[in-house]
Amino acid sequence: MIATPLTDMFGLDCPIVLGPMGGVAGGRLAAAVSNAGGLGMVGGGYGNADWLDNELDLVRKGTERPWGVGLITWAMGDGILELVLRAKPQAVMLSFGDPSPYAPAIKAAGCKLICQVQDVAGAMLARRAGADLIVAQGTEAGGHGGSRATFPLVPAVVDKVGAEAPVLAAGGIADGRGLAAALMLGAQGVLLGTRFYATHEALGHDEAKRRIVQAKGEQTRRTKVFDIVRGYDWPEGYTGRALHNDFMSRWEGREPELAQALPVEGPGFWAAASDGDYDTAMVWAGENVDLINGVEHAGDVVRRINAEAEACLKSAAQCVRQP
Q1: Contact (Cβ atoms closer than 8 angstroms) between residue 286 and residue 19
Q2: One domain, residues 111 and 245
Q3: pLDDT tens-place string over residues 15-65
Q4: For strand 67-72 and strand 40-43, is the pairing parallel, antiparallel, or unpaired?
Q5: CB contact at 8 A, 44 and 75
Q6: Alpha carbons 36 and 65: distance in angstroms, whole number
């Protein structure tokens, strides 16, 4: 068994956390990860109260083990945090903004505060806000993120705040080798998104999952075009990593024109998303897609990655020999 401050904090069997992917990490997926010994997280996305209420009900009924909810800090609407806290999660994760205004309510509810950051300055801000766990997210991650790579970012964050709050690694990790490597960088566990997207319990179209399994890392790109066409005004510095498709090819480098063309392009995009047309709609995915070879059950993913990491750590010890 791999024991770290993360596993001790929540009584987990393995140091694996589900990335709270909006529209993908619903209650069934969160419950499956928690039941397998990790920490399941429901993805609150842009704060649709009805959707969240339904998914929170599913995770509550689906597991008796610890679980949490992830929220986009800048997009949190009125009443969303209160709705989440009424469901009594064990953790709330805030990403992409200053967590300070929301930290007191989260802590007062008895929840652990997890903050996802993309640079060292963000980690220090999160720690000042009282974060119990800090996720250092590298640019290899699918979906929204920053520009720092995982391998140098994680130890830099550990050096600054790791003595005060455990650090988790995210971005480009999809197997036990990645978990073992993260532990060697000083992280106390990992947060995985794309690997769990390609599971049976994940929400989303089967075609999106198929494309993740078939994709190669070089087919992912960071872009703003999907935020522009959806009308989401993301703060400066954040882009989204998705599988490259026809829509991206057509509009990259022409973002101002796309913004002007929204009355025409917007309805077509949303129709494509509804129909599972991923030549137009996006599939958020990280560079680790090369390592994903099939759509599996989430519990099997958790258990396999944990076992692989244990084997890696035991094997690595054999590299140390007496001179």
Answers
A1: no
A2: no
A3: 999 999 999 999 999 999 999 999 999 999 998 999 999 999 999 999 999
A4: parallel
A5: no
A6: 9
39 bridge partner residues: 17
Active-site option among 144, 200, 205, 297: 144
> Rounded to an integer, what distance in angstroms lies between the CA atom of residue 281 and that of residue 97?
26
Residues 138 and 221 in one domain: no
- Give how far the C-alpha of residue 269 lies from the chain's centroid of Cα atoms, to the nearest Å: 24
What would you report as the CA-atom Rg of the chain, rounded to the nearest whole angstrom? 19
Contact 169, 139 (CB under 8 A): no
Taking only the tens place, the pLDDT of each residue in 111-143 is 999 999 999 999 999 999 999 999 999 999 999
- Same domain for 197 and 126, yes or no, is yes
Q: Do 258 and 135 fall into the same domain?
A: no
Beta strands 143-145; 239-243: pairing state: antiparallel
In a domain, 310, yes or no: yes
> How many angstroms separate the CA atoms of 219 and 287, rounded?
8
pLDDT in tens, 73-88: 999 888 999 999 999 9
270 CB neighbour count, 10 Å cutoff: 15
DSSP letter assigned to residue 234: P
**Alpha-carbon separation of residue 42 from 149, 270, 283, 321 (angstroms):** 25, 23, 18, 45
Domain hosting residue 76, numbered range: 5-203+294-317
Lookup result for tokens 């709270």: 20
Q: How many CB atoms lie within 10 A of CB 168?
A: 27
What does the DSSP 8-state code read for residue 43? E
**H or E segment at 144?**
strand 143-145
CATH at 151 = 3.20.20.70
Cα dist from 96 to 57, 68, 116, 145, 265, whole Å: 26, 17, 7, 8, 27
Q: Are residues 78 and 42 in the same domain?
A: yes
144 assigned to active site: yes
Q: Say if residues 287 and 140 touch (Cβ distance below 8 Å).
A: yes
Contact present, 289 and 221 (Cβ < 8 Å): no
* 193 touches 211 (CB < 8 A): no
